[in-house]
Structure prediction request, 334 residues.
Amino acid sequence: MNDLETLREVWDRPKPPSPATQSAARAALMARAARPRPKRRWAMRALAVAASAVVIATGATVFQSVGGGGGGEPALPAANAQVVLTRIAATVQKKDFTPPRDDQWIYTEMRLRSHDKDIRGKRLTPRTPLTSKIREFWTRADGKRVGYMVRGKLMTTNPGERTPENTYSMVAALPTDPDRLLAKFRKIHAVRGGDQDDWIFLRLGVTLSQNIPPPAQEAAIFKAMAKIPGVTVNESAVDDEGRPALSVSRVSEKWLNREILLDPSTYAFRGRRETAVADHEERYPQPGVKRFTIKDGKSVPAPSRVEWSIEKGTVWQVYTRTVVGVVDRAGQKP
Prediction:
C-alpha cells in the first residue's frame, strides 16, 4: 500500500481532499522520509559550511564565498533523487531574497580548471594536470549591458540577444511551473539529434551558475531537474576543495558525468564538474558521420581516427563559483 492509498483509508469518502491537497501531502511525506537522520559529525561540518555564506548590506546586496571538485559515494536511484530535489526546491523557495534593481549589476567570479585547449593526440588520465583560470564578469540586471576585464581594463558592451541563463530579468520571468519551464527551455534550446535532455540539464545548471534566480524560479529549476530522465543525486559528494557537497548529476553520451554541486546545508550553488565515468575515445569524423577527403584525385570517405582519449575517473573540467553578488556599477566587487 503506497502513501496515497494509506491517506485515502482515513479520508471521509463523501468529501475527499482536492488533487492539490493530495499532491502537497505526498510531497511532505516524501520529503520527511528522505531527510537524513542527524549525525553529530555531519552537523558540525554542515555548520562550518553554512558559516561561509555571508550577506553584505552595503554596496553589494548579496555575497557568497563558495568552492568545487572531488569524488563521492554512488548516487541515489532516480526515485530517491526526485525526493531529494523536491526537498531542495521546498527549501530554496523559502529563502530570504532581495531582487536587484534594473540598473544594478550581478558580479560573478568563476574559477575554471580544465585541460589545455590543444589535446590532439593526447590520452587524458587522472594524473594529467589541469590548468586553472579565474574569470569575472558583470551583467546588468535588465540584461542591456555586460562587462568583463581585458588586459586589466574593464570593458562593457551591448550583449545583443541573450538567453535566460545570462540575464536576471529573463530568469525572473521564467515559469514557476516545472513542466512549463522545461517546455520553454526545450523551445529555446532546440537540439537537432543527440540527447536533448542532456543539453537541457546542462543549461539549467548554467542558469544557476551565472545568475541569482528568485526563489520561485530556483525552486522550479530543481523541480524541473527531477523530471529529467537519468538525473541522480549524491548527498555524500566532495567538492574541489575537499568539502562535503550535494551533487545533482546526469551522464552524457555514456561517458561524461555532469554534476551540479550544492552546499549540503543551504543548497546554495557552488559549481559544476564534469568527470569521465568510462574510458572514451573522441574520433573524427564521428562514427556514422559522412566526411570525405581527396585521394588520387577522387573524393573518398575520410577514415575515422582517434583525436584524443580520456581514462575513466579523469576530471574533464570544473567550474567553481567563488563569488557572486549584486553591485551598483560595473567594475565594482562585493
Notes: The mean pLDDT is 79. Helices lie at 3-10, 19-34, 40-50, 78-92, 168-172, 178-188, 196-209, 215-226. The chain has eight helices and 16 strands. The longest strand covers residues 315-327.
